[in-house]
Write a structure and sequence with these properties.
- The mean pLDDT is about 95.
- The chain is α+β, with helices and mostly antiparallel strands.
- The protein is globular.
- α7 packs across α9 and α12 packs antiparallel against α15.
- Strands 2-8-9-7-6 form a 5-stranded antiparallel sheet. Strands 1-3 form a two-stranded antiparallel ribbon.
- The protein has 18 helices and 11 strands.
- The relative contact order is 0.11.
- β6 and β7 form a beta hairpin.
- The protein folds into 4 domains: about 200 residues, no CATH class; about 160 residues, no CATH class; about 80 residues; about 40 residues, no CATH class.
- It binds adenosine monophosphate (AMP) and magnesium ion (MG).
Length: about 525
């Protein structure tokens, strides 16, 4: 029988980069270091609510280990295993477009880098495990509602095929945490929780920006060398030099993976909500699930984040542009290592091409088509997205219903086909005759295009249903699970985790999870409105 004591760690980040010489766990500036060692704060009544079996398997954890008291203690911050090296990373960031200086892991504590059965290393990190030197005036804790949201969404995104950090477990701490959920002067106690997150690394754009902004040239160099050697080894030989060329090649990779990640977000209707540069992963993984949301009615101007309600900087339709803006900040940070702006500019210019190509291909695949020609197809997609906006239309339901619309019809106006889409409309009364005629025309056009490619209904449907999920982490579904869990019943979390394991396959009995937003959720806090308070 194996125990957690059998786990092996290889903490390359802390072994390779500059450690904070100060050890006091109080808020402070920590100049010229990459991280500060800090232990999680023990909790009073830890209880594991949910575990992701897939992540357990990835890490090589068996049933005996998962069922142990040591596991409960490890995932809630009460046990640091031999071989772990707990620490908080130091990084900065641009928040809502403004440089914010030193931020760092204020409530995330990395336990160590685990050697997994497939030979990879996975970094284990607790979120909500207490104060660190980077907590500033905050408490280092996380509440149950936001932890449920992070746990479930990380796993849902993975199964949707979106690059993301993972989550092994969700645990209650037994402690109460004070939060003013809407920042409106109504603080209340809420149950505290911890999520154990997993990723090859949690290095963000902000890790590079901070040393660059302070002229910490050696720290910037070490971090970049480390990142390239560990996570982009094909860009250098074993001990090959890391020169300006290599740094540019590395930057190009980040440009590409970030563009690709955002194409996926637009495909599934995910709105990150806080795309600050401290929340963008150097590996192009979706990271830091805070006030994120899922598009229900298709609205590119929508953001779930009430903290951003005025500028709407991080609204759905703005995510591609913000990706580029954030990459430009990373490019600035890497400049001292390149010494020439032109190749960096060149690389960032490549973002638009990469994104456009990926986006076109993504829309093509959502429509089940085989060929795509920007000139011909752009007006066609513009009309589609205009129509989706014209009357509140559920994006997820729409693409599944579109897959079912038959291409052959006796009605040459196409209007009779529109009834096949009715389920996607939140307000059918808004879909008046004029709109139906427009939809009919669009469907005619679509049908002609698909037929021209020789597609039959069956193969088109199968292809579309592979890229258009039926189950997504709808805001109100997460809220239902949160309400139940807060009342002590964690079944909803387990059920949702299970549904999201296979988001493309329709299964009988799961109609609830595929249905569009119910009326109660339209303006409910936690569903359409979330703040950064978590
Ligand atoms: P976020 O917007 O959640 O990515 O957080 C921005 C910064 O604030 C990061 O440095 C976080 O670690 C920090 N932070 C957020 N919430 C807390 C908290 N409750 N305690 C300590 N630090 C926090
Ligand atoms: Mg963050």
């Amino acid at each position: 029988m194996t125990t957690l004591a059998d786990l092996e760690f290889d903490n390359r980040f802390t072994a390779s980069l500059a450690a904070d010489p100060a050890t006091a766990n109080r808020p402070r500036q920590a100049p010229d270091v990459a991280f500060s060692r800090v232990h999680p704060t023990p909790t009073s009544g830890p209880e594991v609510i949910a575990v992701s079996d897939e992540v357990a398997e990835l890490l090589g954890l068996d049933q005996a280990q998962l069922a142990s008291e040591a596991f409960r203690d490890m995932v809630s911050g009460n046990l640091v295993l031999h071989g772990m090296d707990p620490h908080a990373m130091r990084y900065g960031g641009h928040q809502f477009g403004n440089w914010a200086g030193q931020l760092g892991d204020g409530r995330a504590i990395i336990l160590g880098e685990l050697l997994t059965p497939d030979g990879s290393r996975q970094t284990l990190q607790l979120k909500g495990a207490g104060r660190t030197p980077y907590s500033r005036s905050a408490d280092g804790l996380a509440v149950l509602r936001s932890s449920i949201r992070e746990f479930l969404c990380s796993e849902a995104m993975h199964h949707l095929g979106v690059p993301t950090t993972r989550a092994l477990s969700l645990a209650l701490t037994g402690d109460q945490v004070m939060r003013d959920m809407l920042y409106d002067g109504h603080p209340a106690l809420e149950p505290g929780a911890v999520v154990l997150r997993v990723a090859p690394t949690f290095i963000r754009f902000g890790n590079f920006e901070l040393p660059a902004s302070l002229g910490e040239a050696d720290r910037l160099r070490e971090l970049t060398d480390f990142t390239i050697r560990e996570y982009f080894p094909d860009l250098v030989g074993d001990d090959g030099p890391i020169d300006a060329e290599t740094v540019i090649a590395f930057y190009r990779r980040v440009v590409e993976s970030t563009a690709d990640m955002i194409v996926h977000w637009q495909r599934v209707g995910f709105v990150h909500g806080v795309m600050n540069t401290d929340n963008l992963s150097i590996l192009g993984l979706t990271i830091d699930y805070g006030p994120y949301g899922w598009l229900e009615d298709y609205d590119p101007d929508w953001t779930p984040n009430t903290t951003d309600r005025h500028g709407r900087r991080y609204r759905f339709g703005n995510q591609p542009g913000i990706g580029q803006w954030n990459l430009a900040q990373l490019g600035n940070a890497l400049f001292p290592l390149v010494g020439d702006a032109e190749p960096l500019q060149d690389a960032i210019d490549g973002y638009v091409d990469r994104f456009k190509a990926g986006y076109g291909d993504m829309v093509r695949s959502k429509l089940g088509l085989k060929t795509w020609d920007v000139e011909r197809d752009e007006p066609f997609t513009i009309e589609l997205f205009d129509l989706l906006r014209a009357a509140e239309t559920d994006m997820t339901v729409f693409f599944r219903r579109l897959a079912d619309v038959p291409l052959r019809s006796d009605d040459s106006t196409g209007v009779d086909r529109v009834t096949g889409l009715d389920e996607a409309f939140y307000a059918p009364e808004l879909v008046d005759d004029e709109l139906r005629v427009r939809w009919g025309r669009w469907l005619e056009d679509y049908a002609a295009r698909a037929a021209g490619e020789g597609l039959d209904d069956e193969s088109r449907r199968a292809q579309m249903n592979r890229v258009n999920p039926i189950y997504v982490m709808r805001n109100w579904l997460a809220q239902e699970a949160i309400d139940a869990s807060t009342a002590g019943d964690h079944w909803g979390v387990t059920a949702l985790l299970d549904v999201m394991r296979d988001p493309y396959t329709e299964r009988p009995g799961l109609e609830h999870f595929a249905s569009k937003r119910p009326d109660w959720a339209r303006t409910r806090v936690g569903c359409s409105m979330l703040s950064c308070s978590s």
